[in-house]
């Protein structure tokens, strides 16, 4: 079978919301957002609409449709998590006041495709999962409500049909405020989960998480994302 049969065509999904926070991991206490949506956040939105072990989403590019605007907010958060053993959690004892710098009035275009994984069965095909995603996104269906970085910032979404004109990125609007290219620094690409490790002559399984970063450049309103195998990333 041709390799191309394991990949879908590019899918374009528009997502927008009142607020967003794609948290920088280097900020230990206060929440501070990246300038634009991260690839992992975009993947999470697509998986919230349709995901199965048979497919894996790949983000190709993210278009920024509105000027980047910020909002500073101070709010109360709970410092602990609920115990899995059913012990009560008293909010007043763990309440913490924290400040955050969030994005407001955001609007993005996610350009992505999916690949068929080795976990796919005989009944799985690119056409089948493409039709499922299109049907679910057109009807507004999702397994869980997509969100823009934080669960309290719900995302609205709309599928752009193939061949339809796309909204213009911010670089082509008169109120851009900066040049055609902007270096956003190092951004979180994704968290890779490695299940196997080699130790001497012993090959054993061990779940580990490895954050991967890349140098993000917003050019003409688009954040381009090469495939992980084709780009240099920092871990």
What does this structure look like?
With 235 residues, this protein is mainly β. The chain has a domain at 3-80 and 100-173: Alpha-Beta Plaits, CATH 3.30.70. Helices cover 12% and strands 42% of the residues. Strands 1, 2, 3, 4, 5, 6, 7, 8 and 9 form a nine-stranded mixed sheet that branches. Strand 8 and strand 9 (222-224) form a beta hairpin. The chain is globular. It starts with 10 loop residues before the first strand and ends in an 11-residue tail after the last strand. Mean pLDDT is 84; it is low at 196-206.
- Strand content is 35-45%
Q: What's the helix-strand series?
A: EEHEEHEHEEEE
Coarse shape? globular
Pick out the low-confidence regions.
196-206
Work out the number of β strands.
Answer: 9
Which CATH architecture of the domain at 3-80 and 100-173 would you pick? 2-Layer Sandwich
What is the makeup of the main sheet?
A: 9 strands, mixed
Q: At the third CATH level, what is the topology name of the domain at 3-80 and 100-173? A: Alpha-Beta Plaits
Structural class by sheet pairing and helices:
mainly beta
Helix content: 10-25%
Average pLDDT, all residues: 84
Name of the CATH class of the domain at 3-80 and 100-173: Alpha Beta
- Count every helix, treating DSSP H or I runs of 4 or more residues as helices: 3
Radius of gyration: 20 Å
Ends apart, CA distance between termini? 34 Å
């Amino acid at each position: 079978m041709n390799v191309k049969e394991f990949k879908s065509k590019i899918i374009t999904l528009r997502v927008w919301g009142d607020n967003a926070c794609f948290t920088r991991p280097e900020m230990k206490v206060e929440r501070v957002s990246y300038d634009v949506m991260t690839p992992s956040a975009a993947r999470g939105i697509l998986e919230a609409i349709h995901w199965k072990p048979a497919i894996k989403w790949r983000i190709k590019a993210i278009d920024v449709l509105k000027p980047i605007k910020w909002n500073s907010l101070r709010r109360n958060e709970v410092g602990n998590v609920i115990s899995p053993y059913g012990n009560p959690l008293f909010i007043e004892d763990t309440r913490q006041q924290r400040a955050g710098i969030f994005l407001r009035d955001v609007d993005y275009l996610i350009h992505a495709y999916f690949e068929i994984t080795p976990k796919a069965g005989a009944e799985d095909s690119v056409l089948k999962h493409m039709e499922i995603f299109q049907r679910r996104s057109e009807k507004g269906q999702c397994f869980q409500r997509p969100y823009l970085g934080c669960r309290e910032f719900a995302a609205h979404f709309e599928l752009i049909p193939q061949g339809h004109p796309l909204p213009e990125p911010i670089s082509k609007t008169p109120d851009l405020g900066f040049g055609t290219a902007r270096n956003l620094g190092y951004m979180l690409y994704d968290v890779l989960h490695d299940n196997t490790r080699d130790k001497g002559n012993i090959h054993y399984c061990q779940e580990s998480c490895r954050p991967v970063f890349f140098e993000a450049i917003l050019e003409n309103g688009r954040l381009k994302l090469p495939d992980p195998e084709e780009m240099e990333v920092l871990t």
